[in-house]
Amino acid sequence: MKKEVLEQIALRLRRLSLEMTTRAKSGHPTTCLSAADLVAALFFSELRLDTKNPDNPANDEFVLSKGHASALLWAVFAEAGIISENDLKGYRSINSVLEGHPTPRMPWVKVATGSLGQGLSAGLGMALAQRLQKSPGRVFVLMGDGELAEGSVWEAAALASYYKTKNLIAIADCNRLGQSGESLHGNDVQVWKKKFEAFGWKAVVIDGHNMTQILSAFRKAKGPFAIITKTIKGKGVSFLEDKEGWHGKVLSEDDLRKALKELGESKKMQAVVRPAPSFKSSTSKLGRFSLPNYKEGDLIATREAYGDALVNLSCDDDVVALDGDVKNSTFSQKFKNVFPQRFFDCFIAEQNMVGMATGFAARGFIPFVSTFAAFFTRAHDQIRMAGISGSNIKLCGSHVGVSIGEDGPSQMGLEDLAMMRSVPNSVVLYPSDAVSSAKCVDLMMEHDGLSYLRTSRPKTPVLYSSKEQFTIGGSKTLKSSLSDSAVVIAAGVTVHEALKAYDELRNKGVNVAVVDAYSVKPIDRNLAGFCQNKKVIVVEDHYSEGGLGDAVRSLGLKIVHLAVHGVPRSGRPEELLSAHKIDSAAIVKEVLR
User: Fold this and answer.
1) What whole-number distance in Å separates Cα of residue 270 and Cα of residue 390?
2) Could you give the count of Cα atoms lying within 13 Å of 299 in the half-sphere of its Cβ?
3) What is the pLDDT of residues 549-579, one digit of tens each?
4) Contact between 160 and 127 (Cβ < 8 Å)
5) 450 in a domain, yes or no?
6) CB atoms within 10 A of CB 481
7) Is 565 domain-assigned?
8) Residue 283: inside a domain, yes or no?
9) 246-284, pLDDT tens digit by residue?
10) Domain-located, residue 291
């Protein structure tokens, strides 16, 4: 498409962005103005899309990492005929999918953006997914210079270079200004070029308002490739250009009239997006491997059974595994040994790892992501955004609680249940033995949405036969009688402490029920009736806030809560369970109190 036509389209995008934000009385018009030329050129000279099918596997992908420029995205969709210009009138209103920051409620948006610094990670996941699918598609990620201060951007940049992702192109809209002042390097865009090159990328610096330079850069873009563009925030409107104090502020009706007059009238051009190339994807679902024959009483860690279950799923081409350089501890290495081409070591960069998983899921893959539970905490924002995206990602956090022992508190996952339960529509599972661990992996696979598996370091006895069935939202009553004086609800390692307490109490002539609450979210709602008029003791290897105890309280039950309090220290697992009063002795004492 001729550059004169693209310049007219860019002018229309500017006008539409200003009109939309003023009509909505909210938004970020000046950041739309700085990127309008880039977006016009990208959509109408470079991107290849089946505009009738957002899920065509041959489509190029576009991620608006600077999600606050959403008005520009919706405007270009209108120009491309994906939505109508009339749809733009609903921008930022409660019944419209054209939200203030993009979410997948709009089918052409694959991942939610707006929490800055995450788009490149998602784009990297998409690019690697395209490679596995042998798709001709490419991924373009538009970022602002403000978000280039985020460490997660450089985690993604490093790994994109490591995996030689030739189909990944980053576009940096460097308009000098952040929200409250100048961005990290201001007008010195050469610094960003040097940084990308230091991470193994090819990079060019261009004038982001010069259509000839923009088109030339796109023609050169064989990734990982960074197009560093020097732009002007508020471009095209003299009283907005390069002015501080306008971020997130919309124009009044009077100022809008002045701005539109200064921009000038725009012609409605015949804006046609290049069609997606012909491509037929294929996946195979082979028969599964057999799980090991776990025998009741065998000592096996739930984390090891997770690895076995991953191998069992690995014959499905849609399954990929990601790990943060602890694959020999999480046992995801078992998957790598069988299908190395679908295993991605993300090294010690958990934020990027979760962001990548969201990108994989956006292309139809089912990513299983493994690391120590404690290390998922630094990726909570990425997990939160995956929840907003409705992303079908599976997380496994190992080495939970004080039961890991001598490694000490920095390695102990003690906040993870609270974190994962708070994510909208998440499923949280906490198995107590090898059989339930493997079965929970199957449940995660079948569930369409974000789910979390909490696995333990110690080897624990197998409790269940391989024929035992588990359900999301279920629990298992391991011990009960008509004369139970209390119900002990536990999960993971504390199930075994509860069973020890049961034996000791029975020797004293005291009966209690023991429940394995392996589904922490959703919690088994039948427990409310089962526990009625009984003393309820919840014991968990987790901090007292936000975990199993609070899940049981949500049923309206009054409980005695045994949980980890204070900052733990190194020690043997049995010493730490005792010190924090979550062992069998503490349970016995509480029952007899």
Assistant:
1) 35
2) 3
3) 999 999 999 999 999 999 999 999 999 999 9
4) yes
5) yes
6) 10
7) yes
8) no
9) 999 999 999 999 999 999 998 787 788 999 999 887 766
10) no
The single residue listed with the structure tokens 């009984």 is 534
Asked whether residue 253 falls in the same domain as residue 309, the answer is no
CB 551 within 8 A of CB 544: no
Strands 299-301 and 343-345 turn out to be unpaired
Handedness of CA 200, 206, 209, 214 (dihedral sign): negative
What contacts 342, CB < 8 A, 6 or more positions away?
Answer: 132, 314, 317, 319, 320, 321, 335
Number of domains in the chain: 3
Range of the domain at 499: 476-592
Q: What is the DSSP letter of 67?
A: G
What pTM was computed for the model? 0.97
CATH number, domain with residue 35: 3.40.50.970
Question: Residue 474 phi/psi, 5° resolution?
Answer: -110, 180
Question: What is d(CA 121, CA 382) in angstroms, rounded to the nearest whole number?
Answer: 10
Which domain-ending residue is among 398, 428, 461?
Answer: 461
Residues 491 and 378 reside in one and the same domain: no
Same domain, 199 and 307: no
Strands 394-398 and 366-372: parallel
What's the DSSP call for residue 492? T
Q: Is residue 84 domain-shared with residue 167, that is, in the same domain? A: yes
Euclidean distance between CA atoms 243 and 39, whole angstroms: 22
203 shares its domain with 113: yes
Of the listed 79, 304, 350, 540, which one is catalytic?
350
The beta-strand segments (E) located in 293-413 are: 299-301, 319-323, 343-345, 366-372, 394-398
Q: What would the pLDDT profile of 32-86 be if each residue is shown by its tens digit?
A: 999 999 999 999 999 999 999 999 999 999 999 999 999 999 999 999 999 999 9
Active site residue 79: no
Q: Are residues 89 and 203 in the same domain?
A: yes
- Angle between helical axes of 211-220 and 3-24 (0-180°, round to 10): 100
CB 26 within 8 A of CB 92: yes
Mention every residue, 6+ apart, whose C-beta is less than 8 A from residue 54.
Answer: 107, 108, 110
